[in-house]
């Protein structure tokens, strides 16, 4: 149910996981839709019928089927930190060359491109992906790395 909730938060940021009558419940689309897990892989979806709420319910059912078919966590969902760490290193190594990627003792990743260098604090990137920063005197390098990392984090 937590994974479904994280997927639904991409559709509607106000989606919340709550407990009602001793059962975990997801409330989404301003409370118009409620999803309860009856037992493993059995869900009850409740909504008041209207053309808008029916459209929201269709989106919820589609999302639920996607989660059941391909249960891969999305950013913000629980994801192994080492996977993010390895993926970042692989992506930047592929893009800039493995020899141009270094990690220092303070867990900062450095990307060298010619005479320019960019630094990313891996701890911040992994623990709070929405607030990471790329530090470089070369604005083009900085933008390129930041965009690549944002796309990667959206896919993980």
Short description:
The chain is α+β, with helices and mostly antiparallel strands and 156 residues long. It is 44% helix and 27% strand.
What does this protein look like?
The protein has 156 residues and is α+β, with helices and mostly antiparallel strands. It contains five helices and eight strands; from the N terminus they run αββββααβββαβα. The chain has helices at 2-11, 51-69, 81-96, 122-127, 139-155; strands spanning 16-20, 23-28, 33-39, 42-47, 101-103, 108-113, 116-121, 134-136. The two termini are 18 Å apart. The model has no long low-confidence stretch (mean pLDDT 84).
Notable features of this structure?
single chain, 156 residues, alpha+beta, 4-stranded antiparallel sheet, 5 helices, 8 strands
How many separate helices?
5
Main-sheet strand order equals 1-2-3-4
Shape: elongated
Assembly state (oligomeric)? single chain
* Portion in beta strands: 25-35%
Output the helix-strand order: HEEEEHHEEEHEH
What's the story with the biggest beta sheet?
A: 4 strands, antiparallel
**Radius of gyration computed on alpha carbons:** 20 Å
Give a count of the beta strands, DSSP E runs of length 2 or more: 8
Overall pLDDT = 84
Unreliable sequence segments: none
Distance between the termini: 18 Å
Query: Percent of residues in helical segments?
Result: 40-55%
Indicate the structural class: alpha+beta
